[in-house]
Design brief:
The chain is of the alpha/beta class and 320 residues long. The chain folds into two domains: 212 residues, Spore Coat Polysaccharide Biosynthesis Protein SpsA, Chain A; 102 residues, no CATH class. Helices cover 45% and strands 18% of the residues. Strands 1, 2, 3, 4, 5, 6, 7, 8 and 9 form a nine-stranded mixed beta sheet that branches. Helix 9 crosses helix 10. It is globular, with a radius of gyration of 20 Å. The termini are far apart. The mean pLDDT is 87.
């Protein structure tokens, strides 16, 4: 296949990111690979984001703008996926940036390895900073092995924005409307449906964490969504992925118990999640593939969820 003839669709959900949007769009429109279809879904923004989208569309014919009532990032991505004509598709968040050869490198990785998906690394950076660390060789994994690695929090990571997907793999997939965990779930569906995944060991996606980022927003019921999605995966995955899915469910369950305020974890819910932790802690502790630092959490769970919560929060505070 002629690389230059491949249309790459880039879908960008936009909601109230006017402070960061121009920098994001500049990083997309100046890509070294030019055969792009850039779809901006303005998801009911109440700031100047919609006007910025229209301004960029006025000077770049590759940009198509859709203005819709606010329905959430998953809805915006799903609509963009429905509209896209790209043979390959990327999702980029409107407050982040990508390296100048992000598209070219990921497309090369797919074509040279014969893969269905390629995945780069992403790095959290401070406002205005750029991270482009490039170490190692591109390699290909089977779809099953890539899914296994992702569930164990290794490469490829669980985020969709640092990936490129062949259309035939994701044409019928949709992001769930859970508020948290939709990237993880969509990546699971795509990776597990693929024959081969190219791992690009370069940091080509820059994630800017700021006060408006999802992780900093006030806790809501939707932030428990990752646990529900992890449970769906564990309950339906093939036996070859069972241990990895068990580890991911344990971590998602523990996260929900440790981070949700009491009013969001009424007694029945807390009891169900605590029971899941008790059921899986020994499995995680005996799992040779589970990262050592997470086994510490599994051990702490034997001393009760309160102790485990304190240990987890202390660990997060030190890690920061």
């Amino acid at each position: 296949m002629n690389k230059s003839s491949s249309l790459v669709g880039i879908i960008v959900p936009v909601y109230n990111t006017s402070r960061f949007l121009s920098r994001c769009l500049d990083s997309i429109t100046t890509q070294s690979y030019e055969n792009l279809e850039i779809i901006l879904i303005d998801d009911g923004s109440t700031d100047n984001s919609g006007a910025i989208c229209d301004q960029y569309a006025g000077v770049d014919r590759r940009i198509h703008v859709v203005h819709q009532p606010n329905r959430g990032a998953s809805s915006a991505r799903n609509y963009g996926l429905k509209l896209s004509r790209g043979e390959y598709i990327c999702f980029i968040d409107s407050d982040d940036t990508v390296a100048p050869d992000f598209v070219s490198t990921l497309l090369d990785a797919i074509l040279t390895t014969g893969s269905d998906i390629s995945s780069s690394r992403m790095e959290q950076v401070k406002k205005g900073a750029v991270a482009e660390k490039r170490v190692g060789e591109i390699r290909a994994l089977s779809g099953t092995d890539a899914t296994w690695e992702m569930l164990y929090l290794r490469e490829p990571n669980m985020n969709t924005p640092c990936k490129m997907f062949s259309r035939h793999i994701i044409a019928d997939l949709r992001f769930p409307d859970e508020g948290m965990g939709e990237d993880f779930y969509f990546s699971y569906l795509a990776l597990s449906a693929s024959d081969s995944v190219a791992i690009v060991p370069y940091c080509m996606y820059n994630y800017v964490q700021h006060s408006d980022s999802t992780v900093h927003k006030k806790f809501s019921e939707k932030r428990l969504g990752e646990y529900r999605l992890a449970r769906q995966i564990f309950d339906s995955c093939p036996e070859s992925l069972r241990s990895a899915a068990a580890f991911r469910l344990f971590m998602s369950c523990f996260y929900s118990v440790s981070n949700a305020p009491a009013k969001y974890l009424v007694k029945s819910r807390r009891s169900a999640r605590a029971q899941t932790i008790r059921q899986l802690r020994s499995r995680v502790l005996g799992d040779k593939q589970a990262p050592r630092k997470f086994k510490v959490i599994a051990v702490s769970a034997y001393f009760g969820t309160v102790f485990a919560q304190l240990l987890y929060k202390t660990w997060i505070r030190i890690a920061r």
